[in-house]
Amino acid sequence: RSLVVGGAEAAPGQFPYQAGLLVTRRGAAGGAAGVGLCGATLLSDRWLITAAHCCREGHKIQVFLGSHPTMRDAQQRAETGLVLLHPMYSQGQPGHHDLALIRLERPVRLNDRVRPVRLPAWRHRAEDFAGTVATLSGWGKTSDEDQRPVKGTAVLRFARERVLHAEEAEAILKRKLPPHFLCVRGLRGEVSCNGDSGGPLTVEAADGRPMLVGVVSHRYGHLCGLSKAHVCTRITSFLPWIAAVTRVPVEH
Question: Which of 31, 65, 82, 208 fits 103 for a cystine, CB–CB 3.0-4.6 Å?
Answer without folding.
Answer: 82
